[in-house]
Amino acid sequence: MTSLTSAKLIGRGLASTLPGEILKVLGVLILATRFEFGSRADLWATEPRSKQMPVPAFNARTGMPRLRFDALWSALTFSKQPTGGPAADDPSGERFRWALVNDFISSISAHREAHVTPGDTICVDESILKWYGLGGHWISVGLPMYVAIDRKPENGREIQNAACGRSGIILHLHLVTTAADKHANLSAAETQLFLGTTVLQRLVGPWAGTDRIVRADSYFASVEAALSLQASGLRFTGVVKTAHRRFPMAPLAARHLSARGDWVSMVHPSPSGPPELIAVLRSDRDRRYFVASAGSTSAGAPCERLRWRQLDGGAERVAVSMTQPEVAEIYYSCCAQIDRHNRCRQDDLRLAHKLGTHDWSQRVNLSFLGVCIVDAWMLHLGARGPAASLKQATFYEDLASGLIDNTFDSTGWRPRTAQAATDATVAPAYGVGVHLTPTTKRRAPPSAGVAAFLAQRRCRVFRTNRSTLVCFGCRDTSVGGEIFLCGPKTGRDCFRFHLLAAHDAWL
Amino acid sequence: MAAQSFWRACLSSRRHPTRYFVIPRWGLVMTSIPCVSVLLRRLHLVARSRRRFMAPMRWRVPHRRRDFSPPGLPSTTSGTLAHGFEWRDKAVPQPIGGPVPRRPWSVRTQGGEIISEGGDYVGFGRTRAPLDYFFAVFPQVLLS
């Protein structure tokens, strides 16, 4: 990301960038979603539109000038597109265009596969990334696959994703591409399966053989999906609607269910005797057909909701309880995780709504950034538990603040442990240990308001030049306050001398 | 002009209101001429009787059927076949394949720490900051 963005900046005759500055831009983007504004330039205004409204003054708040932000925003690149145009076997240029977002998606999926251990359930569903610009398979510019479905809240790009059923963290992302591209990427064995089953196998493939329960909606659910997941060591629960091949839809539909909450079931026995699959019809507001290779048809915990009812004395909230089988209980316990994630991204974070762009790849990449930010919120919520003190909006504000004031570019030094000294594969740690960090002090403001510049003091070692950087380990006021030192860009070794003298450490 | 006036008179007539019919292969047909509407009504009924017109699934009321046996599916001695796949009427009191134990989720950070359910506390009275959670889920390899 840094190298690609820097290359674009240098091509335009601008200064290159560093990872810390990229993170700062991401922080500014999140901070921008907390403000109401017409055009993006309003965020750098120093005079308020109304005397009752606070002035955004992003230059002073974030330390990033508007011109630099605009340059970075227009050059921000998440994925590498091959040079030389589309390949010979890609006449429509679809794969060439998808390359603008593919690296980001694949790195998110690879990161989750390596670092996230999901709970006992995995939820699979679809999401829409908002886009109302150019697009479609019939035109060679814009979003290659434009989706407009009436029942979806937005038009744009569709993705299919898997999430942890307990924490709600996204585990795997899959692009919905055009039919021609889909068929070109199917193997001979996959062409015999439903498309939903193929996508399902790809989404939950990294967790095969772990005996987790996969919950999927009617796009994916079928007898075939349940059997294929069973073969790969996963269990399945889903609602069948259209993909009812080998599912006893007609016998179940003929059954009479007297009241809401009633259910009937059928089983498919395995060759050895015990049941392999369950088909359940449950009467709710409408009839729901479940296929499952996990759970039982015995009564599970009843579903309880508070609903308004008109009683003799007036309208009152009444607790409505509905019986359900264990299969439905498993399904409904985690089926809304991805919908919840989508609502957090679209309605609470609002990254795509607030920051307009005419570049489809910028919008899609921004939406994936939103996925990561909401994942961080979900992780915080799960780790903190019911005692979480931060609200979602406060979390995003704190995250923006942390990203804007990040110290990612300053490498930390600490004494190496015996194990680390022998282990050559230990990755470098950034922003930890004793390192140089910008001072928290600011210059005295010329008039009432916030000072735009950091305070400067003479370097404690060199004693001639001034610096805004201080030693992270010597910031305690009881030990003498902040110690200003020359930064590494000056070419002097002031920090190295200070480390040896004050912390008995060396580079 | 005369034809237009005639059609306007037909459409606005209260005596002969406009009627709509769904005819297979023709689609939606509207008329206000009484004799044509009688003909179209016949066509509509004939089409329905020949089962060319299929009502949407939600219009059908299965439990009003007199015969409750599954239609169109061969029955075996012990169950029903759906596309050659055998199903039996049976309840499953125990979870098939055994119960699935509850598993805790966790996320491993770049530095090797584990963030798990209720694992916000990092010692010495400190908790993780929002930035720590962001770095735990953001692929940092992308920043290089």
Distance between the termini of chain B: 76 Å
Main-sheet strand order of chain B equals 1-2
Which structural category do the helix and sheet elements of chain B fall into?
A: alpha+beta
Assembly state of the chains shown: heterodimer
If you compute it from the alpha carbons, what radius of gyration of chain B comes out, rounded to the nearest whole angstrom? Answer: 34 Å
Helix count of chain B equals 3
Question: Residue share in helices of chain A?
Answer: 25-40%
Protein structure class of chain A: alpha+beta
Give an overview of the whole structure.
The complex is a heterodimer of chains A (507) and B (144). With 507 residues, chain A is an alpha+beta fold. Chain A folds into four domains: 2-77, no CATH class; 91-186 and 336-404, no CATH class; 218-334, no CATH class; 418-503, no CATH class. Chain A has 16 helices and 15 strands. In chain A, the strands form four sheets. In chain A, strands 4-3-2-5-6-9-8-7 form an eight-stranded mixed beta sheet, sandwiched between helices. In chain A, strands 10-11 form a two-stranded antiparallel sheet. Chain A starts with a helix and ends with a helix. Chain B is of the alpha+beta class and 144 residues long. Among the domains of chain B are: 2-55, no CATH class; 108-138, no CATH class. In chain B, 24% of the residues lie in helices and 20% in strands. Chain B contains three helices and eight strands, in the order H-E-E-H-E-E-E-E-E-E-H. Chain B is elongated and about 95 Å long. The N and C termini of chain B lie far apart (76 Å). The relative contact order of chain B is 0.06. At the A-B interface, helix 2, helix 5, strand 1, helix 9 and strand 7 of A face strand 4, strand 5 and helix 3 of B. Strand 1 (116-117) of chain A pairs antiparallel with strand 5 (106-108) of chain B, so a sheet runs across the interface.
